[in-house]
Amino acid sequence: MSDELKRIHPYLPTLLTQLQAGKVDRREFLRTSTLLGLSAAAAYGLAGCDEKKEEQQQSSSESTSTAATTTQTATAPAENVIRVGMRVPALDNPATFSWVYDSNIVRQCNDYLTRTGVDNVTRPWLLEKWEASADLKTWTLILKKGIKWSNGDELKADDVIWNLKHWLDETVGSSVVGLMKGYLLTDYDTGQKDDAGNPKMGTKLWADNAIEKVDDYTIRLNCKEAQLAVPEHLFHYPALILHPSENGKWGVNSIGTGAFTCTEIEVGKKAVVKRRDGYWGNKAAVDSIEFIDLGDDPAASVSALASKQIHGLYEASTSQYAALQKMDHINLYQVSTGQTAVARMQPIHDTWKDPRVRKAMRLAIDTEKVLQVAHLGLGSAGEHHHVCPIHPEYAKLDFMKQDIEGAKKLLADAGLPNGFETDIFCKKDPDWEPQAVQAMAEMWKQIGVSVKINVLPSSQYWEIWNKETAPFAFTTWTHRPLGVMVLGLAYRSNVPWNESFYSNPDFDSTLTKAEGILDVEERRKVMADLEKIMQEDGPIVQPLWRAVFTGFDKRVKGFQIHPTYYLFCEEWSLTA
Amino acid sequence: MASFFAKRLGYLLLTMLVVSFAIYMISEFTPGDVARKVLGPFATQRQVELLTEQMGLNRPVVVRYVEWVGKILTGDLGYSTVYKTEVNNIIWNRLGNTLVLASIAFAVIVPMSILLGVASGMRESSRLDRSISLFSIVTTSVPEFASGVFLTTIFAIGIGILPGTSTLDRGGGWSIASQLVLPVAVMVLYDLGYVVRMVRASMIEVMTRPYIRTAVLKGLSFRDVILKHALRNAMIAPFTVILLQINYLVTGVVVVEAVFAYPGFGRMMLEAALSQDIAVIEAGALFSVLVAVVTQIVGDFGYMLLNPRIRFS
């Protein structure tokens, strides 16, 4: 057994020993072992649990409903259609999707290589399994055999390679670039100059064999640097596997590997996917899924649910929570997530240069209170380091409590005994965001810092979120399965999404170290250092972690709320 | 007559030209660039630059304005960054939906407001007048978003006889007709009171005229006095006001369409404005101005027909 495990990955026997010794919990074992290429069935077997049962337990423990999710469908109703209230955006270019809901319709028809479940465990999906080298620089992706596209072609390594190269092509404009740049791409001088006369830089694959075809079912990624989270990256919402013949475009009747085929899209109104024959996985129980666009007014979605025009909502807001609770035919689903928002300060500006000022801003906040005021207490209080308690490598530090006197003293030490005035930018919706900012602004007043709030419409906010023109701003971050992933995306020097322009060589090197450690116990020790740096020196004030929730008709079975709101409609069924 | 129309047409073209220039310049100088809006917030700067070049956005603004006007004249309304399609593919469909809503509302508002206004104005301060006036003032002063929520709470959530939203989708077993009831009701309630008050005021004024007194003294029945003598004259002033309601109904239904998730022109404009979809905003604004100017011309023309005194001036 041990030898067999060793062949898949040298670290697996150690991990198994740790599980048996109780050093890692079962969930962590499942996550890491599947991450290292063990097939899900084998991993669940070793962990001594049944995969299906585990998932069900997960969903019933995390949703407020109990019995409903586990009972199976008896008879399908005459009209076997499930309607979901969700924005219907333009879907023609999946690689450039900006939001999760963009991908929700396409996901029913096309698949990802991997899938992160509602339990935060990433499993192979179109892949049979993956294998990582000990140094985490070589990743071998092995496809399931016999998966057919809806046009009858078989899914082969060439299709996947085409997709990988498509995402990483700089002219395409995919955000996958931001994730994979560090280990697959390199900067080069395009030869052009910008207005200021500086050379314009482009990106290309760092080596010719960075993406290598081994055989028809095997792809190898030869990375520039060690990367732990490749499987998670392959589940990034734009990373949908499309048929190369359509050249990156997607629409009605596009070729897919999924359980459904899209038959209708009307942007801003409605999209329909219908079940298709020949799907490689379990056949979907419903005939079709309709996505109905109800606009941004939260009242409209509630009315539509009340009059049963839709069966469920993609996402519910705090302003809808009470109304949803009151509807008898609706189940409320809730899950704790790594979704959050942070007030980030750019140390490149004079106001935020001094780490003592940044820490004072953190100490002024009673995060538990902000959670109550802004998010109905749904979620958990923030600890100002952007590593979430549900991240496997989360290290528990002493909780950073509100400390007005301590904050005032820090400000005085920094030469600002009377505080200062500043502006913060934030988005208008969802409404918990400006509410959280307002609550924090009141608390900052107590240490003499007067903060003027500039509320912008979302689209305008996203224009400036990572610009120097917004020295102080409140940005939402979505859930990501690993702590190192978040920190690497948002706080490493000079990465595209480093909105706070934070640059700390100490932090960078410690992060690189953490990213190269497979052993969660070991990684957690390094993580503690990273979290400490964030709390002492870091650029953010983080008020809360959100629990997300939504409502679905009790007739819909098999729905599970995903921390990032991904919908997997082939798991759903409808009772009469 | 011909010169009247020629003048009006010239006025229309001039207005459109001025407005188009203003709209283009305003949208041009709003913060953020078009390529960034197409690609979304997470694209890199390099990607934005590539698209800017591709779309030719780095050329002078005047050149692009002239080009834009040329395209509009040939029927090309540009490319929407939100709907990722030609504006032509979306705007007509949305206008059609709004037109359905607006015409039903208009067809209810006009006869009802004339009826109520005349009934109210023919005997000022009567009990009937008092109750109609009270009704009009109350309904007009409740904003649409509030009456929308009230009506939905009563009829969709409470009694459950009408659907809560009007997505023009038959899903859930609600007919299209049933979906139109609530939005039309909200628009009628909001708009009716205003028009009723206009008709009433005009009617009251006409009823004090000497020729009405003469007619009454001649021994005509009250019914004939109202129908044959008062009505036509009482309609002259409210006529323009009624035509202006077309403006409101087509371009001012943003709130109703958002509350009921109705896929119409107003919601399209709202979403375009929120996400700065310039091509849609420009085309929609031009259309709104067109509606305003055309209804004004029709108004002037109708006014002439109703009032012989200004017919030849």
Q: List the uncertain runs of chain B.
A: none
β-sheet strand percentage of chain A: 15-25%
Could you name the CATH class of the domain at 88-276 in chain B? Mainly Alpha
- What's the total helix number of chain B? 13
Structural class of chain A: alpha+beta
The number of helical segments of chain A is 20
Radius of gyration of chain A: 24 Å
The topology string of helices and strands of chain B comes to HHHHEEHHHHHHHHH
Distance between the terminal alpha carbons of chain B, to the nearest Å?
Answer: 10 Å
CATH superfamily of the largest domain in chain A: Dipeptide-binding Protein, Domain 3
Helix content of chain B: over 70%
Provide a descriptive summary of the structure in words.
The complex is a heterodimer of chains A (576) and B (313). With 576 residues, chain A is of the alpha+beta class. Helices cover 32% and strands 22% of the residues of chain A. In chain A, strands 10-11-12-1-13 form a 5-stranded mixed beta sheet, covered by helices on one side. In chain A, a hairpin with a 5-residue loop joins strand 4 and strand 5. Chain B is mainly α and 313 residues long. Chain B has a domain of 189 residues: MetI-like fold (Orthogonal Bundle). In chain B, 76% of the residues lie in helices and 1% in strands. Chain B is flat and about 85 Å long. The termini of chain B are close together.
What attributes characterize this protein structure?
heterodimer, A: 576 residues, alpha+beta, D-Maltodextrin-Binding Protein, domain 2, Dipeptide-binding Protein, domain 1, 20 helices, globular, B: 313 residues, mainly alpha, MetI-like fold, two-stranded antiparallel ribbon, 1% strand, flat, transport (chain A), signal (chain A)
